[in-house]
Amino acid sequence: MRSTTLVIALLAIPFVLPLFAQTASDQYVLDLSAMDKSVDPCGDFYTYSCGGWMKANPVPPDQSSWGTYGKLQDENLAQLRTILEEAAKAGADKSSTVQKIGDYYASCMDESAIDKLGSSPLAPEFDRIANLKSKTELAEYLSTSQFPTPIFGSGSLFTFRSTQDAKNSAEVIAEADQGGLSLPDRDYYLKDDNQSKELRNAYVAHVQKILQLLGDKPEQAAEEATTVLRIETELAQSHMTRVERRDPQKLYHRMSVAELAKLSPSFDWAEYLKKNGLASANSLNVAVPEYFRTMSTAVEKESLADWKTYLRWHAAHAAATYLSSAFDKENFNFYGKTLRGQQELPPRWKRCTNDVDSDLGEALGKAYVDRYFSPDAKVAAGKMVKEIERSMQDEIQAMPWMGQTTKKQALLKLEAIANKVGYPDRWRDYSALEIVRGDEMGNAQRAAWFEFRRQMAKVGKPVDKTEWTMTPPTVNAYYDPQKNDINFPAGILQPPLFSPKSDAAPNYGNTGGTMGHELTHAFDDEGSQFDAQGNLRNWWTEADRKAFEERAQCVVDQYSGYPIIDDIKINGKLTDGEDIADLGGTLLAYLAWKADTRDQKLEPIDGLTPEQRFFIGYGQSWCTNERDEFKRLRATVDPHSPEKYRANGVVSNMPEFREAFHCKAGQPMVREKLCRIW
Ligand SMILES: [Zn+2]
Fold first, then answer.
1. How many angstroms separate the alpha carbon of residue 274 from the centre of ligand 1?
2. Residues classed as catalytic
3. Rounded mean pLDDT for each run of 10 residues along the chain, 678 residues in total
4. 578: CA distance to ligand 1 center in Å?
5. How many contiguous H segments (helices) and E segments (strands) does the chain have?
6. Distance, CA 591 to ligand 1 centroid (Å)?
7. Nearest CA among 476, 488, 484 for reference residue 384
8. How many C-alpha atoms does 351 have within 13 Å on its Cβ side?
9. What is the reported pTM?
């Protein structure tokens, strides 16, 4: 899944990739078997809500994590598979878009044809790398490589995209960002503990194996793998950390092309921009200047031969899942098994379905929405979002710690937020993308280029506010601070998370909580730095900002105390925005539910009061089992806290919860010092 710089999502984008036969039951109520009623809700609310689910739902062999969201995503995938298998059948009367998704899927599923090709689809790219005559040709190569950045992984050398200017959201500009690594984070290269060292050794062994599969002799491949690690480590040193990157001011460095050339003289920027159709661009954002200074030094310092090794690895790495099963398996051994703890390669249909979702997502998404997303669900979800926004309006007006001047700005921002529910108003046009049946690698490459050119073509044009960064079947949601919109794809508005016919209490606790979460992102420590127009501009009075930051620190301190695995605790500064959004979102959902049902007489169901069902609905949205390897990975890269704390961390701050379950002071789910922001 592609992501822009600043989109803030409900779930980690790279990890919840891909899903319950849709039981659109008329009266969806809480799943009592998911609970463990032997556990005291005031002691550990997460286990009380999810204990039964966790016992009944071990992590499947092809997954690294298995939770309510991941399970729904797996079910959505099965629905997409039905659509794709029908589209792939020859002879049926099809629109050109259906033809494209069908041909793409059929090409991907034809494993024996792919196996016969071995590594030969990479040959043209390797010839180009072998023929590079000097390091000055790097720019020309990177701007025409078959594996354009940022579409394939983090890209060779750096990431390049278009974005709205942070300080003038009406202007679309180009942006160069750090990149060039093949491990998930700078920490993997720089940390010195035994586990990090072991992972680095496993990585080097993996690079060596891939290079051997390409025909290199073992000793040569071993040496090349060391070269790759050395270059990537140099680059990693100048990567900004994930915590630093949460501050949008630190990522804003608009400069002229001449200034970039001066900062990073060993790379021919003018050539790179020209080749990407940006010859007339005078300036761009350089998100991490220090990275480009370091990259330039590395280009100078390392030999052309070593750069060729690096580029060859990056091309093979980007291509691995589209090549024969030997490459696919070795790629899985490291990135699936070692890094994430998956036991088995997911079945091919899942991976092919994900590829279509990634490359032709709105073509597939349109077919998905037509078949699996009811107009009723769209209307009901839209109404719920409105209720939640009304609650936020009341909350801001009543906020004891914020002055009138800031309140006025906050209300303006709230009013300007656009709500996007289900799917885009205008579907992406894929007519310029050629899909050839039987050409798996070619399809992937043309799709990558289609996307990259689409990105580049946006530079200098008006912002398309109808655009989505997630595809319709995705089980996730996001807030975009530059467009100032909240987005809820059709994929997450499905049972058991959401049903227009459900008991309102768990529906609000669950999906209402998600909506409140995204809305609160507009006002978390990061989102609150953008104004109603999506510009990075301080609209706070000094005193109010200080009061906000003190409250945000309360959340950092709370979450930093929670253990993840081994001796690793939550990095509360990394997860602060998400924790604030969880806390604010659940309270907003609670208030909206109360407002929405104020004229109804709410009754207990199954011995649970409406308030209890609200909170259990929230708690059960987080039921998850996870492999240890994946916990460690997330601790480093994921701005979201582990699910247990997304449940317990929130409810232990809420007097409404304490009242619903009659908890007493001193019990674990009753914090002495309550954090509260929105
Ligand atoms: Zn979020």
1. 37
2. 518, 582
3. 54 42 48 96 98 98 96 97 94 84 98 97 94 96 76 71 96 96 96 96 98 98 98 98 97 98 97 94 96 98 97 94 96 98 97 97 97 95 97 96 97 98 97 96 93 94 96 97 97 91 92 97 96 98 97 98 96 97 98 95 94 97 97 96 98 98 98 95
4. 5
5. 28, 12
6. 20
7. 488
8. 22
9. 0.94
